[in-house]
Amino acid sequence: MGMPEVVFGERKTPAQVAGIFKRLAKHGKNVLATRATKEQFTAVKKGVRGVKYEVAAQAIVLRRDRRLYGKGVIAVVSAGTSDIPVAEEAVVTAELMGNQVERIYDVGVAGIHRLLAHQKTLSRARVVIVCAGMEGALPSVVGGLIGAPVIAVPTSVGYGAAFQGLAALLGMMNSCASNVSVVNIDNGFGAGYVASLINRL
Amino acid sequence: MGMPEVVFGERKTPAQVAGIFKRLAKHGKNVLATRATKEQFTAVKKGVRGVKYEVAAQAIVLRRDRRLYGKGVIAVVSAGTSDIPVAEEAVVTAELMGNQVERIYDVGVAGIHRLLAHQKTLSRARVVIVCAGMEGALPSVVGGLIGAPVIAVPTSVGYGAAFQGLAALLGMMNSCASNVSVVNIDNGFGAGYVASLINRL
Amino acid sequence: MGMPEVVFGERKTPAQVAGIFKRLAKHGKNVLATRATKEQFTAVKKGVRGVKYEVAAQAIVLRRDRRLYGKGVIAVVSAGTSDIPVAEEAVVTAELMGNQVERIYDVGVAGIHRLLAHQKTLSRARVVIVCAGMEGALPSVVGGLIGAPVIAVPTSVGYGAAFQGLAALLGMMNSCASNVSVVNIDNGFGAGYVASLINRL
Amino acid sequence: MGMPEVVFGERKTPAQVAGIFKRLAKHGKNVLATRATKEQFTAVKKGVRGVKYEVAAQAIVLRRDRRLYGKGVIAVVSAGTSDIPVAEEAVVTAELMGNQVERIYDVGVAGIHRLLAHQKTLSRARVVIVCAGMEGALPSVVGGLIGAPVIAVPTSVGYGAAFQGLAALLGMMNSCASNVSVVNIDNGFGAGYVASLINRL
Amino acid sequence: MGMPEVVFGERKTPAQVAGIFKRLAKHGKNVLATRATKEQFTAVKKGVRGVKYEVAAQAIVLRRDRRLYGKGVIAVVSAGTSDIPVAEEAVVTAELMGNQVERIYDVGVAGIHRLLAHQKTLSRARVVIVCAGMEGALPSVVGGLIGAPVIAVPTSVGYGAAFQGLAALLGMMNSCASNVSVVNIDNGFGAGYVASLINRL
Amino acid sequence: MGMPEVVFGERKTPAQVAGIFKRLAKHGKNVLATRATKEQFTAVKKGVRGVKYEVAAQAIVLRRDRRLYGKGVIAVVSAGTSDIPVAEEAVVTAELMGNQVERIYDVGVAGIHRLLAHQKTLSRARVVIVCAGMEGALPSVVGGLIGAPVIAVPTSVGYGAAFQGLAALLGMMNSCASNVSVVNIDNGFGAGYVASLINRL
Amino acid sequence: MGMPEVVFGERKTPAQVAGIFKRLAKHGKNVLATRATKEQFTAVKKGVRGVKYEVAAQAIVLRRDRRLYGKGVIAVVSAGTSDIPVAEEAVVTAELMGNQVERIYDVGVAGIHRLLAHQKTLSRARVVIVCAGMEGALPSVVGGLIGAPVIAVPTSVGYGAAFQGLAALLGMMNSCASNVSVVNIDNGFGAGYVASLINRL
Amino acid sequence: MGMPEVVFGERKTPAQVAGIFKRLAKHGKNVLATRATKEQFTAVKKGVRGVKYEVAAQAIVLRRDRRLYGKGVIAVVSAGTSDIPVAEEAVVTAELMGNQVERIYDVGVAGIHRLLAHQKTLSRARVVIVCAGMEGALPSVVGGLIGAPVIAVPTSVGYGAAFQGLAALLGMMNSCASNVSVVNIDNGFGAGYVASLINRL
Question: What whole-number distance in Å separates Cα of residue D197 and Cα of residue D201?
């Protein structure tokens, strides 16, 4: 109950996304298109009422069921401004699945005191999503500060030896904090989904 | 509450493990030594009463607190017999953290009906841990069968293009099931830990 | 007998493809241009009668010999909708080489029951081609369900840790089903070709 | 019918292999233990009558069913002397599955005329298995000489930039011969198995 | 003596190439611009007389010294039509450095008899350059046919597991022919240069 | 002045190390053998007076010049107990080059408050060396806390996706703190050397 | 004191860069935008007085504080002309942080005498930055010539097996000169920053 | 004429090497066993008269034909002492093939003046072999100093990011000197062989 219908927008034409979205919308559930462009949104809007485009998350959202299914708060933490699109995809997903979400952005590990200022919010969260590119160190630090499960999302942010998120991915897989598990590079949706499942328990 | 003290046994001498274990044992909590050898156990046993060696999990366990902290059952699924040590490390960790655990072993994807025979048990679980080496395909299949969160553990089982678990790791990172998150190769402990946190919610 | 002439269209100009196609067409056999664009087709059409463009497969086809050389049915299975172009390339190749083909599409491992619904068709096939990106798990599952040889085609579908098909390739190389062999990433043609050879035996 | 029971010997104790072998032997079929040591053989021999150790293939074999299931000959080709253990694993597997096998060994591509001398044998084969390490070029050459399906087995033979078979694996995946498909590094068993399935058609 | 001035055209503007070319042309030697576009040629032509654009090699050539410095013939061998630009870069380089060159094109290893038809030409060559992408097997075969030194050039031709020439590079590094050495991926110039040095001895 | 003579002990016999050490000792400077075993020490001791074996650093040390060349303090920080050998190699190197060193050990990022407790010491340091394996996140955090240059040393500590220090190396290369530069995996000596040069300025 | 405010321009719109730059400019410090385009500069210029675009460094610079903080000279060395943008980013950064900088360009290792001609300048430098792509050999040679610390910057210059700077990065990590530490691929800013910190000591 | 018979000793038993060596010795030519142990030598010596063990090269040598086939001198250059075994394998090979060889050892790029001291010897050589591990920079420097062809041999010397010779291999492939070609990691034999062919011209 409360599970959204989802379509992955990348490498689909506006017409394809619009077609799939319309079909999914018939099920009466919330519908989400991730990695969606404005062009795709324009196409979807013509056939489905009430859809909204979330610019920061690059997502098309149709929200019908607004009940809260999550029992606590999901905190979404991100390291740099370039990680925000991924973080926002997680936020949109979690909200659409009926969760209260708190954003803690721009708290990269090179400025640890900015992160520590949010410790109270972090401690109150039932699940925490952490998005970071480059060295991907943030989930370990967050994981050490709290007892709740942490879902880490490596992002493709960075250049050179970042290798499109590989450095962050490997970093997170090797996290020295025991409460961290990891989803695919840039997979904000997956993180939001897993966190939502956990928050319903 | 109910969090164990933990020591990683690999590349430590029996004397080192015994020393650390004894010190940790003073805190009055459950104590766990992972990747531990029989020699390390023999050394630990001399200084600490009530310790047990879990052969299959290669773990030394001191269990004092036997309360149940987990609210449901954690299912631990493994693909082949060679994955069992990793799976058992997850089992031992989860049990020591106060969870009821059900084992579903030897259900690799090439014999999908063996897995399907356990569908009821899987559906009852509140969290599922899935350990698999080689192509690492099992978490996707399990993830598709149930609605609960799945913690995937790639194992270093395999040869040739398995590249010590890299193939399984990449496979699991790309899982087409949205409820899957991943821990490090052979990290049964981490999976058991994360699953325990989730099961307490 | 019944072997087509083949040209690989990628990175060739329409004029180049048209020139080669025309030359090959003189041999009187079936001719196939893979990875071909509509522009290439337009150029080919001017010089060769009876050619057809297969949109889904991105292939230009000249079919003269319509005899059946294959002794049974080749099933072509694909995981997600994005894998279909590769699957269709296999279909077109197999058909042009004189085989009966059955498509089983959109049966990714995260929805195993959709695949199981086709078990009868699969069991009747003499050879099975399985196309999958992301974790590349489908060939193992299919391989376990049937006794026939399985040709696995990793596709470059996915993002992040999919690494343009590397994850799927490694997964398939490590398949725990013994009846699986693998061709190059996105090589639908190769799979169709090998399957056709086998089906003639 | 005629499918053997198989156990993978690597990293198992003699006692474990002996136990599994004995259990499998009860089914009345042919039994094969691959990657088996002499110590494992000694242990198996105590509990099962009629077993044989194939030194070159590092395999323990129990052959009861000696019928021919394959309709033609399977040729097993190998590049250098170091590739022979993998080739022999393929031979033993194919023979145990009821096939006639012809060996064509020591025909690496740097001495192309040695290979060409066997062209007649190659052309008579219904399926060809080609084992090669280092640059893994042999399957392409063999594939170009014949019309039958070729199963390529990269071996971990080589040093330096061979990277334990990775160079050969990549080479074979990119074969310019269309009749080649590939199994895992050193997977002689898999090649023998797939070839046997094909030869029964 | 007879060494050309060289400029690498890639990622330079027409103006930059024209400027450098003009400056180099003042030394009175042959001048070569590799990886050059027609636009760069147009710009060069305005300031330097007698330059020529070699389309197939993507090179701008100013030839003043037409003496032969090489003592024998350099054979340039290539596998597929897509390898020709790299091969032609080698040809242009070698010719500009005063060598007689013989082209042996389109002799990939999957059609070994096409290569064998050129054995006489190959045997007469004092040095042989071999360009091949995909599995990069051709240098080993050529190396085995002759006694002369072979300079192997991996090309970035291929797709999927070719990984932009990495597969061919690794294959050539592991060549089982002892007379093979290797230059960088697509480095036709380097091969032509080294071969020219050898041919002068 | 004050630069030590250095020999790298790994893969050398005790006799080789003893021979080189003795020869270097004749120059009258401090002498250091890194990656040295007790056996090598025993051999060195026989020929050179006053040598000492630093167990934790696995180093043989001959200290004659005890002057201070460094103008401030070098802090050596390490994440886990397994990183200590690398950290100690840095310490021994820096001390032998005439520096005051302060150790800050066991301050991994998953327990950030342990690190923050040392902030005063860190701020006083003129250069800081940070050794960490696994995710290699510590240099970024330390780098953000201070204004001094940070020399990061990835260690090969970890398992699975740590890939012998590759994960830590990539993490450190992508550090979001601008004052971080990196030396080779496990290269405590290099870090101590660079830090000493900086501290002399 | 004298630390600039910095914004990373890549993948930001002109409006975004202009907004951030304007905000940072209010702090009264020097401001630097790296990886900045002319379009971004045009946008910035409208809102901030006195900014300058450094074409070669692709940087937007606002210099207010012109004091010298560095105690000696920083030498910036680069191998080829394609490495100059990275070198210039280092120069601009170092100058903006109050350092005297000397450029030593176009001194790649294949023309070692060109480098040796600058030995005096190199020896006078208090810190040396070395930028090189392709094989990344220059830092080792420079490191061997001088006693000062060397900051090595691998650049993404090269093709084929250069793998976007990976070859240079690995080369520099393995430098046989002990005074070398390394920053990320193309990270001229980081090198300038670290060198500035060292030069203030 | 003057081509030796060769056997690769690695992973062969003393009996196997002795058997092959004896058989090859019957051809009357020079015989060489590379990567050979003393145990293998002891076995060979029993069956073949006049064999010698070259400790530094780890080679067993039977020299009958002592004529000079090479027209000039081959210089063999190596960077560090650990590279000497590979260099010596090249020396032994070249000598056995009838060449005059000059060794220039211990001239790593971090001490460039040691190398420059040998410039005259280098310039006199007709071909130069350069062996180097770690960053593999030496061939570029040597290549720039001379006009003769350079055969580069990456060695597996180094640790950490050296990745068993991969760093050196990539470095050499990207050499900025145009006269460099490369053989496999640790392949001293191949380098000696190619150099000998060139020196005969």
Answer: 7
Test D160 with H10 for CB contact under 8 angstroms.
no
Across the interface, do C11 and E160 touch by the CB < 8 Å criterion?
A: no
Q: What is the least distance, in Å, from the CA of B43 to any CA of chain A?
A: 26
Burial call E80-93: b when 16+ CB within 10 Å, e when fewer = bebbbbbbbbbbbb
**C-alpha D46: how far from chain center:** 27
Report residue D168 as tokens. Answer: 């050969």
DSSP assigned state of G185: T
The candidate with the shortest Cα–Cα distance to G136, out of G93, G168, G88, G98, is G168
> pLDDT per residue over F127-147, tens digit each?
999 999 998 999 999 999 999
CA angle C176, C181, C182 (to 5 degrees): 110
Counting as low any pLDDT under 50, the low residues of chain B are: none
Closest-CA residue in chain D for C150? D194
Nearest to residue F78, comparing CAs of F188, F182, F177? F188
Measured in angstroms, the CA of E166 and the nearest CA of chain D are apart by 9
Q: Which phi and psi angles does H104 have, rounded to 5°? A: -130, 95
| Total residues found in chain B within this entry | 201
Alpha carbon dihedral B114, B117, B121, B126, in 10-degree steps, equals: 60
Find the DSSP H helices in G5-117: 14-25, 38-47, 84-96, 112-116
Nearest residue to C137 (alpha-carbon basis) of E47, B130, H74: B130
Taking CA–CA distances from H177, the nearest residue in chain G reads G110
pLDDT at C100: 98
**Cα distances (Å, whole numbers) of residue B64 to B69, B96, F26:** 14, 9, 61
Per-residue confidence (pLDDT) for residue B1, from 0 to 100 = 72
Q: Is E106 exposed, middle or buried (0-12, 13-18, 19+ CB in 10 A)?
A: middle
Angle, alpha carbons G112-G118-G123 (nearest 5°): 115
**Angle at CA of residue B154, ends B152 and B156, nearest 5°:** 160
Instruction: Using CB atoms, list chains with 3+ pairs below 8 Å to chain C.
Output: A, B, D, E
Among B135, B145, B164, pick the best mutation site for testing chain C contact (most C Cβ within 10 A).
B135
CB distance G186–A161 less than 8 Å? Answer: no
**Do the chains contact at E147 and H190, CB–CB below 8 Å?**
no
Do the beta carbons of residue E165 and residue D171 sit within 8 Å? no
Q: How confident is the model at residue H156 (pLDDT cuts 50, 70, 90)?
A: very high
User: C-chain residues within 8 Å CB-CB of E155?
Assistant: none
Task: Decide if D112 contacts D64 (C-beta within 8 A).
Answer: no
pLDDT at C2: 82
Q: ipTM more than 0.90? A: yes
pLDDT of residue G2: 81
At a CB cut-off of 8 Å and minimum separation 6, what does F14 contact? Answer: F37, F39, F40, F42, F43, F44
Mean pLDDT of chain H: 96
Amino acid at A26: K
Cα separation, E158 vs D131, whole angstroms: 23
**In a 3-state reduction of DSSP, which class is residue D54?**
strand
Q: Which amino acid is at C11?
A: R
User: Which residue in the set G181, G185, G201 is minimally distant from F194, CB to CB?
Assistant: G181
pLDDT at E157: 92
Instruction: Say if CB D110 and CB E150 are below 8 A apart.
Output: no
Distance from C-alpha of B127 to C-alpha of B149, rounded to nearest angstrom = 5
Only one residue has tokens 């061997």, namely G144
Is-contact H76 H103, C-beta < 8 A?
yes
In the chain, the amino acid numbered C88 is E
With CB atoms and an 8 Å threshold, state whether E194 touches H184: no
Q: Which pLDDT score, from 0 to 100, does residue B135 have? A: 86
- Report how far residue B73's alpha carbon sits from residue C13's, in angstroms, rounded to the nearest whole number: 61
**pTM exceeds 0.90:** yes
